[in-house]
Amino acid sequence: MPTRRPGASRRGRRRSTPSSCAPATRSARCPRRPSAASSRKRSTCARSACVGPATAGPPARRTSAMRPAFWIAPAAMLGAAAAVTPPLTAADLILVGGKVFTADPARPWAQALAITGDRITAVGTTAEVRAAAGPAARVIALEGRVVVPGFNDAHTHVGPGLGPGVDLAAASNDPELADVVRLLASEAGKAPAGTWLRGTIGPRVLDDPGANRQTLDAVTPNHPVLLTAWSGHGALLNTAALRALGVSDEEPDPPGGFFARVRGTSRLNGIAHEYARWRLERRLAEQVPHADAVASIRRYIDQALRLGITSVQDMGSALPAPRLADLLREAGAPLRWRVMRFGMEAPSAPDTVEGSGRDEKDGVVVWGRKWILDGTPIERLAAMSAPYADRPAWTGRLDFPPQEVRAAVERARREREPLLVHVVGDVAPELALSAMEASGGAEVWAPLRPRFEHGDGLTPSQIARAARLGVGVVQNPSHFALPELMIARLGLERIRTFQPLRSLLAAGVRVALGSDGPPSPFLNILFATTHPTNPKEALTLEQAVAAYTARAPPRDLQRAHRHRRAGGLRCGHGLQGKEPPLTQQGGVFDFLRARGEEFFTRVSNELMSNPRFIKAMQTAMRGKEWVDQAVAQALKTMNVPTRTEFKRALARIETLERELAETRREAAGAAAHARQPAATAHRSAASRRARKKKTASAES
Predict the structure, then answer these.
(1) What is the CATH number of the domain that holds 508?
(2) Does the pLDDT value for residue 249 go beyond 80?
(3) 110 near 100, Cβ under 8 Å?
């Protein structure tokens, strides 16, 4: 792998730390500008849609950017201001000498931009933008750094947390059942009776015949236990947890979900799938103390701001949408928020909890209704038209019967509210598309801008129909990090068209990217541009950044925030808090070595300033059997990876690195040995000719 350290001359530069968006002296023309006292610090502005060095200071002074990884400019497409025209008023801040990504296919990159007050008024070459500067303009020298729009996380889940309890320190997110039982027994011996014990599980536990509440009860009779699948679509509870949540031994299945039961009886065995799980989590979340809920949301906000996220779309949390919106407002959410309604009833039933209509206040808008129509291949619950490769008699299942899917579509048409549906297999999108075609077609649905969440199983014909109807797709690239598991579930033939991305854009489908897992945009851009499961569907770097910033399919928030207004584009000023460490291009090895924010900033620097890094990652990740176990497993806990898991992943990668280096040395040695006889023969022949020539010369 490459060993060069790009930008080595900047090594050792200290990373600055983010400051909160505290009140600061602001100029009359740019209310988001920090004071001169903060010009050497980095801050994230409360309403910021742009990230970069602090901008206040003496008039007309030229300041060098402190080399952040990238700058985040207004969340609106910079391309809308890319054509430089005389601004209404002279700019009082200009950023020059950089690489400004405009998201305009005709002119994707510029060198500079001008800001007047809180609006971007020009984007173009450095010379063009300098001409727009006023006499007292502040000039920021970007020194070649990249400016990108603020990131819009188009699909995530923000909630109040699960309240007090003990979290199991498993070695991975996919432990064996025996390991989970040992951990539960250990924690139950230390925690007071009644303390919630929580953990994360994966397919190994869910597929284990012994995974039931009786197994958990044997070691935790007095502690409620909640083990949630990292896919978000299943959970295992013991009897104490079911009792604490008011679930009876023969609880009926709720709309959209089901409980697994003891064979031959109606007694629950402790496993809850789909809406059965989400109903239980909602009951638990409603018990979280108010102060803890607000604190949990504030922690998310802090993390989002550090990652350059300026707008968030919550796709259904453990709380009803009105309650979550109130918490976001109380938390002083300095991001723009869109909260989707996620009801616990069938689409045909009245909803007295989530509300209806557009509710917008204090930067938070509740607008749109989401339905989850099937599961995922991880639990084999995505509804497929063909059987699963590793379970030939099973095709998954729908969460709602076809008539309820049609009811969801009709409800959105009647209420004129955006329709958002989770579809992963190919059966659910077929039902939704057919229902939209039968209820008005593109004339009705294109203005409503419906969207599919994930759309992993969309077939080529379904993609074409979605484009005609105006259906957008929000994809989550971190889901691409499971190639081996997906091949096992679907088989090699079906995987070739699974999780489409590039082909969506080619067909004219509006595409946006969201996290639905690790929140880093850079992590998801990395996977969008490599796509380990289906590399031919990978996006270009420009396509991925555009999809993560300006190409959100629905009416994401107020469109005024994302489109040109009279006088330019809205802009807030703030800072990306930390400068990334500069490191060698080490492919997957460095990719795993970094963790948390250190990883995010490391990748952002490479990703945004060196597109060749994408090709290096594609080469490093394709065809490696260990990608799923080593890389994807670490990603699932990338926020706070466990020490044991992280060390195991590193050890495996380091072993492979050593083996690869040894193989290369052996190959080089073999090649040299193979060349040696020929070289020796050549030298011998030359010596003989020289001796012969010398002898002939002496004789003459």
Answers:
(1) 3.20.20.140
(2) yes
(3) yes
